């Protein structure tokens, strides 16, 4: 809306009031709407990716705290076992059945286990602090974290579709958005038309006059060529980024799925074969040592083997849950549901 007054003298003054409306040509409005809609879709995909990231971080922190809790329990059990072995060695030394060197070895082993217990307790505190930081100050604080130790994450098929991966969806939307921006810059090369309608009051003539106008800019020096070229090059870059993202996602998925299968196979082998055998050998060696049938070195070696097997089992379990969380980050889905198959 525009108002114009010519001449300050009342008897010769001319007053004009007019309304001007630009009319966009070449599909500019539809191109702008397309760019905006694709930008909104990118934001929605980014929100989904952030949610998957947070969910994976919380899952990783939770199972990290659980594994740290199990390590503390293992270290406590190891301290009790090494204490019993040290007491047994001390009694046998007093009875003159073994050398004092065996008692020294038992005490050294017990001291080493106590050091590992303090380290495990420190790791548990750090893991709990990380979990609390992710959950926020309003989250409840549990003294003992409960979890299903017999349920393992479900394995995904190697042929899992990767089309809905947030990173790929984001890259494809970026290509579409850049193409829409190319169309917008092409449309901007076409000049717009401006229609004008108004009224004019001429005091000298003493009557009102209608004002009708039409204006069309002539793009002689400005053809929007530079902006169009830039949009085309950015579109080429988006397509190259899409190809790079696809290769990266496929590579990460192959590596993570293989790591998950290997970690689960290791966990099952340790739980079904290694741990039962190590516990049986330790019980037999401890009973035989107390009865005088085995040497202290045999009992100490069996105890060390059992501790190592349990620690290896916890490391493999931690690797399994950490890999599952990484898969959740990559796929943007909740893959940490326990498997219904018996581990």
Question: What's this, in brief?
Answer:
With 343 residues, this protein is of the alpha+beta class. 66% of the residues lie in helices and 10% in strands. The protein has helices at 28-94, 100-135, 166-187, 225-290, 296-331, and strands at 2-6, 14-23, 193-202, 207-215.
Question: Please, could you describe this protein's structure?
Answer:
This protein is an alpha+beta fold and 343 residues long. Helix content is 66%, strand content 10%. The chain is built from five helices and four strands, in the order ββαααββαα. The chain has helices at residues 28-94, 100-135, 166-187, 225-290, 296-331, and strands spanning 2-6, 14-23, 193-202, 207-215. It has a four-stranded antiparallel sheet with strand order 1-2-3-4, with no helix packed on it. α1 packs antiparallel against α2 (100-135), α1 (28-94) runs antiparallel to α5 (296-331) and α3 packs antiparallel against α4.
Sum up the structure in keywords.
alpha+beta; 343 residues; 5 helices; 4-stranded antiparallel beta sheet; disordered C terminus; single chain
Number of strands: 4
Range of strand content = 5-15%
In the sheet with the most strands, the strands line up as 1-2-3-4
Task: Specify the biggest β-sheet.
Answer: 4 strands, antiparallel
Helix content: 55-70%
Q: Indicate the overall shape.
A: rod-shaped
Class from helix and strand fractions: alpha+beta
Low-confidence stretches are 336-343
Q: How far is the first residue's CA from the last residue's CA?
A: 77 Å
Radius of gyration: 38 Å
Mean pLDDT: 83
